[in-house]
Specification:
The complex is a heterodimer of chains A (about 290) and B (about 350). Chain A has about 290 residues and is an alpha/beta fold. Chain A has helices spanning about 40-55, 70-80, 100-115, 135-140, 195-200, 215-220, 270-285; strands spanning about 5-10, 10-15, 35-40, 60-65, 85-90, 120, 145-155, 160-165, 170-175, 180-185, 230, 250-255, 265-270. Chain A has a single domain (about 5-245), classed as HUPs (Rossmann fold). In chain A, α2 (about 70-80) packs across α5 (about 195-200) and α3 (about 100-115) packs across α4 (about 135-140). Chain A starts with a strand and ends in a 5-residue tail after the last helix. Chain B contains nine helices and 18 strands. In chain B, α3 (about 75-90) packs across α4 and α6 (about 235-250) packs parallel to α9 (about 325-340). In chain B, the strands form four sheets. Chain B has a seven-stranded parallel beta sheet. Chain B is α/β, with parallel strands linked by helices. The longest helix of chain B is centred in the first third of the chain and has 17 residues, at about 20-35. The chains are: A alpha/beta (about 290), B alpha/beta (about 350). At the A-B interface, α3, α4, β7, β8 and β9 of A face α3, α4, β7, β9 and β10 of B.
Chain lengths: ~290, ~350
């Protein structure tokens, strides 16, 4: 028994290092100005896919990412860790998409891939924290979904057994294949790069990345496993009215930088007298005690 | 007032009680509905729903839709989505709210995808306002302005859905205030037949085990919070915070960085992606003051910052700043509290 798994991965700006030029005037993100990383929870999702591949040899793990051509970087990262191939869904028509238009584009690509048993991705991406794209893809494909997954513990009789970690505890559900799963950040961390895979895939690239370098193009064309696929809107038969800004019901009305009102802080030197004085004051005004 | 075009809140219900987050949304929904001159509606799907209206009418609910079936509890995605999708097609709400919980964040996207309506996650503020499309110059009045942090909390974005309905939003627990409108408020109950709103195929996902562990952490209700950040340095040092909290009768909270480091459990996280708190006293230990954290505690009455970095951003919103190491400062705070309290 083996399965075809699509891992949804997103290359995200590292929101822990945001500078002033991070936003464009139209309210969308200026990705070029920021370090780009593999969305952390998508790595947890990749690990779940790889664990299924360990248990069911012959399972094929395909990364699917939507973004600019440089997103091929995270496909390579996935290959280094044990994925079998990857697709970058890239088209100017997808630019400015909200979660609904994003899920539409990814769902059309999943349909193009066709023969899959599981679509798995992180619960949410750190640049938006919305957790919407997974369930929306499931809806667009007419599939059941299991969100907040901690582990896919087994697949038997055409059903996946998944544990979920939610506010009120832990739940184990059984869900028929094919299905969409989104994985929590508290799930098992992704295995590191594998030395053999690193050697095998270090020259993996998309044709955009090697454009103009005939020697590299020839090298990749002669070794199809090294070719990071690039699909555009036309290739996946996407309806342009449902893509990008045009397909997004939500619009950004405005963006503000976050400014907090500063208070007049009283500095309390860390001496015994001052600390005891502070405690006495807080007791006296009934803040504590 | 019409039976369509109203504001509706999806209610979460567990152990015979409507969830706080749902009551908070009803409070917000009531005030927005009154502003728009429309009805406040609510929908609940589950088992053992007898008498639930008594819990929600005081919040000003004009109409409660109830779908009763033992298969609807515990929550699963497909039947609850189908109920909302089919109900929304019929009653065409202009606005729909749900909690930004593991349920609301599972359900909302599915419903919005099917209805092609916009959904804004984790809003921190909801208002009614106007909007002019920058390209077409078309004016829109009485839109829901959905305000949310984005980009790791570094910016606040205002989102609108000009043309698609319902305008949907999720809000985390504790962000909005819960307030009874009128204990004698009278609404109407409309019972819906589960078979008209779901199909048998909606029940393919089976819950085979459910370990409910009620969180013992009550950050929202605690008048004093001792919170630690990455600067606490280790899991062991968090014991010091626990000792101070035990001494003061406080709860221990944490920033995302400390939770990510594995020093504290997830349910103690304070900030935009955790809980929003408004205690009487907030003691921030080794917390630098990332925007995403400050947004979840800035309404605390008194803030004390204990940090060895005098330039830590959190100090700008603190009332008292103690510059020092927590290993050094916290034991002395405990000592002097014990000495001076009666």
């Amino acid at each position: 028994m083996s399965f075809n798994i699509i891992v949804l991965a997103k290359q995200v700006p590292d929101t822990r290092n945001v500078g002033k030029d991070a936003m464009k005037e139209d309210g969308t993100i200026n990705r070029a100005a920021l370090p780009a990383i593999f969305n952390p929870e998508d790595l947890n999702a990749l690990e779940q896919a790889l664990q299924i591949k360990d248990r069911f040899p012959g399972t094929k793990v395909t990364l699917l990412t939507m973004g600019p051509p440089r997103a091929a970087e995270i496909v390579r990262e996935g290959l280094y860790r044990g994925a079998d191939g990857g697709i970058v869904l890239s088209d100017r028509a997808f630019a400015g998409a909200d979660t609904l238009a994003t899920s539409y584009a990814l769902a059309t690509a999943a349909k193009k891939i066709g023969d899959f048993d599981i679509i798995i991705g992180g619960r949410q991406a750190i640049d938006g924290d919305t957790a919407q794209v997974g369930p929306q893809i499931a809806e667009k494909l007419g599939l059941p979904q299991v969100t907040y997954a901690e582990e896919i513990t087994d697949i038997k009789d055409g059903k996946a057994i998944v544990t979920r970690r939610i506010e009120c505890g832990v739940e184990t559900v059984s869900c028929p294949l094919p299905l969409v799963v989104t994985v929590n950040g508290s799930a098992a961390p992704c295995r590191p790069r594998n030395a053999k895979a690193l050697m095998k895939y270090k020259r993996a690239a998309s044709l955009t990345e090697v454009a103009g370098d005939q020697a590299k193009i020839d090298y990749i064309e002669a070794r199809p496993y090294l070719k990071v696929q690039e699909w555009n809107a036309a290739y996946v038969d996407a309806d342009l009215q449902q893509c990008g800004l045009a397909g997004s019901p939500t619009k950004v009305k405005g963006i503000e930088n976050v400014v907090f009102t500063a208070k007049d802080a009283r500095n309390v030197p860390a001496t015994d007298e001052e600390l005891e004085g502070l405690i006495k004051e807080l007791i006296a005004n009934h803040t504590i005690g | 007032m019409s039976d369509q075009n109203n504001l509706i809140v999806y209610l979460e219900y567990e152990d015979g009680k409507v969830a706080d987050v749902s009551l908070e949304l009803l409070t917000k929904g009531r005030s927005l509905a009154s502003q728009l001159g429309i009805k406040l509606e609510a929908v609940v799907a589950g088992d053992k729903l007898e008498g639930i209206e008594k819990q929600v009418f005081p919040y000003g609910v004009d109409r409660l839709y109830k779908v009763q079936d033992d298969r609807l509890y515990p929550y699963t995605s497909l039947p609850h989505s189908s109920i909302l999708i089919n109900l929304f097609r019929k009653i065409k709400p202009q606005i729909a709210f749900m909690g930004a919980t593991s349920i609301g964040r599972d359900l909302g996207p599915r419903v919005s995808s099917c209805l092609h309506s916009g959904l804004t996650a984790d809003c921190t503020s909801l208002e009614i306002g106007s909007h002019t499309d920058p390209k077409t110059k078309k004016d829109y009045d009485n839109l829901l302005l959905q305000i949310r942090p984005a980009f790791g909390g570094n910016i606040v974005a205002t989102i609108v859905n000009p043309d698609c309905r319902p305008q949907m939003a999720t809000v985390r627990e504790g962000v909005m205030k819960k307030e009874i409108l009128d204990p004698d408020y009278k609404g109407e109950v409309v019972e819906l037949d589960v078979n008209e709103y779901t199909s048998p195929e909606d029940f393919v996902v089976e819950i085979i085990d459910r370990q409910v562990a009620k969180s013992k952490v009550n950050l929202k209700g605690s008048p004093i919070i001792v919170a630690g950040g990455y600067g606490v340095g280790s899991k062991e040092n968090f014991d010091l915070l626990q000792q101070l909290a035990d001494t003061l009768g406080a709860e221990v909270g944490a920033s995302r960085a400390a939770v990510d480091a594995g020093w504290v459990d997830h349910d103690r996280q304070i900030g935009q992606t955790g809980v929003t708190v408004r205690p009487k006293l907030y003691i921030a230990c080794g917390i630098s003051g990332q925007i995403q954290h400050i947004a979840g505690m800035q309404d605390s009455s008194i803030i004390i910052s204990v940090n060895n970095d005098p330039a830590a951003p959190i100090n700008t919103i603190a009332d008292y700043v103690i510059t020092g190491n927590i290993e050094d400062v916290l034991p002395r705070l405990i000592k002097y509290y014990k000495k001076n309290s009666k």
